[in-house]
TrEMBL record:
GO biological processes: alkanesulfonate transmembrane transport; cellular response to sulfur starvation
Membrane topology: Multi-pass membrane protein
Residues covered by the ABC transmembrane type-1 domain: 73-257
PROSITE patterns in the cross-refs: ABC_TM1
Keyword Membrane: yes
GO cellular component: plasma membrane
Family membership: Belongs to the binding-protein-dependent transport system permease family.
Protein name, entry field: Aliphatic sulfonate ABC transporter permease protein
Transmembrane segments: 30-48, 81-104, 116-137, 143-162, 206-226, 238-257
Sorted UniProt keywords: Cell membrane, Membrane, Transmembrane, Transmembrane helix, Transport
Length: 276
């Protein structure tokens, strides 16, 4: 049998195995984190790493248990989730509207694109003093800062997706005498959908990153507040617990968005990769 046929058969069988046993890929993803946890536990127990600098994973687990048992943990998680959800929704919605407008209009691009590129280069912490002056210290500046972080990945991805649509598809639409709105709705936006979801997933990751900066704005609850509290009280177990919670929540939210992407883009016949 030719080598290409063997390779195709192997990739096909591997892909079929993943489809039949989706849990297999999830368990493989846990191998590295579990190995790291076991290694760190051993190094701390053997006093090769000072416990006051890097606590053992078991100690971090105890800290999480105490926070959860006291009810404090769920309050922090709920507040952070609400802030990320609101900021991500606002930033992504504005990015879709403005990105579609700029992508479809050269005139809009000439007016807006230079300003957006300049704003994109501003670090997140640089916005904090200005938002405090403008919006005070309540929830509004926190949500606005997260929305700023979510805006630019979605905007850039959608703009690139629209501009990379095959021109032949547009010409076919014009041959069928589609109006500008119909051309956009039936050809341009569906063709740009994969790029849009890439931008949404990047924006969601940045929203969790911007959350930490946002919760430095006079926050009394949230995972960013836990990080700050652990630093000020010299409790590395609290700091690491907050980092782990951010990682888990970020992974779970990205998994939900990935499932939505798979459902929305089920029509694609894309390469899933082999087992090599």
């Amino acid at each position: 049998m030719p080598a290409s046929s063997l390779l195709g058969a192997r990739v096909g069988s591997d892909a079929a195995l993943i489809v039949r046993r989706p849990w297999l890929g999830h368990w493989r993803g846990l191998v590295l984190p579990l190995a790291v946890l076991v290694l760190l536990e051993a190094l701390v127990r053997l006093d090769w790493i000072p416990a006051h600098q890097l606590p053992a994973p078991s100690q971090v687990g105890q800290t999480l248990w105490w926070l959860a048992a006291g009810g404090e943990l769920w309050g922090h998680i709920g507040v952070s989730l609400a802030r990320v959800t609101a900021g991500f929704a606002i930033g992504a919605a504005l990015a879709v509207l403005i990105g579609a407008w700029v992508g479809l209009s050269r005139r809009a691009e000439s007016y807006l694109e230079p300003t957006f590129q300049a704003l994109r280069a501003i670090p997140s912490l640089a916005w904090v003093p200005l938002l405090l002056l403008w919006l005070g210290i309540d929830e509004t500046p926190k949500v606005v800062l997260i929305a700023l972080g979510a805006f630019f990945p979605v905007y850039l991805a959608l703009l690139a997706g629209i501009r990379n649509v095959d021109r032949k598809l547009v010409e076919v639409g014009r041959l069928h005498r589609l109006s500008g709105v119909e051309l956009t709705r039936r050809i341009l936006l569906p063709a740009a959908l994969p790029s849009l979801f890439t931008g949404l997933r990047g924006a969601l990751s940045l929203s969790w990153m911007f959350l930490v900066a946002a919760e430095l704005i006079a926050a009394t609850q949230g995972l960013g507040y836990l990080l700050s509290d652990g630093r000020e009280t010299s409790r590395p177990d609290l700091v690491i617990a907050a980092i782990l919670l951010l990682a888990v929540l970020g992974k779970l939210s990205d998994g939900l968005l990935k499932r939505l992407e798979t459902r929305a883009l089920h029509w694609r016949d894309s390469f899933v990769g082999g087992e090599g």
